[in-house]
Amino acid sequence: MESLIGLVNRIQRACTVLGDYGGADNDTFSSLWEALPSVAVVGGQSSGKSSVLESIVGRDFLPRGSGIVTRRPLVLQLHKIESGGQEYAEFLHLPRRKFTDFSLVRTEIQDETDRLTGKTKQISPIPIHLSIYSPNVVNLTLIDLPGLTKVAVEGQPENIVQEIETMVRSYVEKPNCIILAISPANQDIATSDAIKIAREVDPSGERTFGVLTKLDLMDKGTNALEVLEGRSYRLQHPWVGIVNRSQADINKNVDMIVARRKEREYFTTSPDYGHLANKMGSEYLAKLLSQHLESVIRARIPSITSLINKSIEELESEMDHLGRPIALDAGAQLYTILELCRAFERIFKEHLDGGRPGGDRIYNVFDNQLPAALRKLPFDRHLSLQNVKKVVSEADGYQPHLIAPEQGYRRLIEGSLSYFRGPAEASVDAVHFVLKELVRKSIAETKELKRFPTFQAELAAATNEALERFREEGKKTTLRLVDMESSYLTVEFFRRLPQEVEKTANPAPSNVDRYAEGHFRRIGSNVLSYIGLVSDTLRNTIPKAVVYCQVRQAKQSLLSHFYTQIGKKEGKQLSQMLDEDPALMERRQQCAKRLELYKAARDEIDSVSWVR
């Protein structure tokens, strides 16, 4: 059964592959990485960090040299395999390549560092991820950080000291980070860079493990017992002494397994450290860290599980939002298209019927815009005294009217009624633009459509085409209403008007009486009264025509022609319509991978968390 550390290693690795590490766009994913405990290796330059790591792994694999060698964080995940199994290493950026020659691992670390920073002494916070599988390691995650320094050397920026410290702090400040503070024994512990920064971020020492290197290089007659026994600087965990390979051993390529044996012999035979021999050395350090890391993981299981469950809920919600992959057969694709159309139509109808905002704007056209347009019609100019005289006189011709100027009346009324065509057409156009805007909003609010930009465009084109047809029909109908008013006048209205009857015996009135201003004013007033009657009628009938021809049709048959066209398309054409946004497809794949990872992690944590 897999250990908790091995499981956490896999979760961390998978999180990194899926982009959850280092600035992911989802806080929960980033929090999951931070909730997984790991060990950060901290020390000054030339403190022996690299040698400690190589001693724990049992392999030469890290770049060496003077000055700053580690210029990017190295996330090192150790996986214990069965005895006799072949050792190998894998880089996250080269997932299908196994390294069995560890000198090539060293070269690749250097090359990968140079790819990002160039062949300079610049640093980068972007980590390199390396996994090593070996029967000679314990399950452990270690993060090798650039060595702390006090001054910038040639080729480094002036702020390199602060940059390195900021990078180191970004790891060790996390409450789930275990600090492995490396200090050389041949220097005063009070000046240790690693202890200084560990004390600041972990004042209680609960997360800090102290490691003393170079014990064999101390001056004769001196030892580090004050530190190793916790009298000089006490931590919650015991100090561990390490004896690394000498430069001569490195030059001779002394095997790490041999070096481990020499280290054991050193402590066993040392008169100063013999009584601590069973708690010294790189092998003991690796086991100590592994045991502590597993205990920390076990204590963090509830919070880790909670974060995983939260991630699963968010991912399942996002997968529902993104939609499932589209089937390849034409029948399933046609069904998907129809479902998309129904989803759009449902939202569009909600806008019209009041479930969503927007439909009230149509009522505003009828209740405010149309009446305002009718009130602004220039009847006062058309029925002015001067124009009434002119129209009536022209209508009489060479024979003046005897009683009432009927032709004059008809011409004045017909001229007035023609003004109603403008508000009628304007009402149709106003509702058309409201419907177009509601279609646009409905498409934008139909989440299912976001997957298919091609289909969105075709749907928008089809709806606009349908709305244009409805607009043309609306204009024809509303203009017919105006024309009908012109084609037949309401006779009863004029029969009720008081007639002008001459009181004199002479049947022919005088020229003065026939063309008196009062006579023409009454004509203009009568026509205006009739136009007011027609205006009231059209104010009621134009909205009915617009709703019938445009709004009702939009609700009932907006996509009828589109459905007919879709039914004629072949499978390839349907596939082209359902051509998804590549970014969305990639996002779905990422979510699916994350979801699979987190569900597997949850199940495996449940299966191993109670194993002692």
UniProtKB/TrEMBL annotation:
Gene Ontology biological-process annotations: cell division
Q: Where is the signal peptide?
A: none
One term of GO molecular function:
GTP binding
Q: Name one Pfam family in it.
A: GED
Concerning InterPro entries, the annotation shows: Dynamin (IPR022812), Dynamin_GTPase (IPR001401), Dynamin_GTPase_CS (IPR019762), Dynamin_N (IPR045063), Dynamin_stalk (IPR000375), G_DYNAMIN_dom (IPR030381), GED (IPR003130), GED_dom (IPR020850)
Can you quote a single GO CC term?
Answer: phragmoplast
Q: Which UniProt keywords apply?
A: Cell cycle, Cell division, Cytoplasm, Cytoskeleton, GTP-binding, Hydrolase, Microtubule, Motor protein, Nucleotide-binding
Provide the Dynamin-type G domain boundaries.
Answer: 33-302
Report the residue ranges that make up the GED domain in this protein.
520-612
| Assembly description | Forms homodimer and may homooligomerize and heterooligomerize to form the phragmoplastin complex. Binds to PHIP1.
Q: What family does this belong to?
A: Belongs to the TRAFAC class dynamin-like GTPase superfamily. Dynamin/Fzo/YdjA family.
Write down what this protein is called.
Answer: Dynamin-related protein 1E
Question: What lineage does UniProt assign to this protein's organism?
Answer: Eukaryota, Viridiplantae, Streptophyta, Embryophyta, Tracheophyta
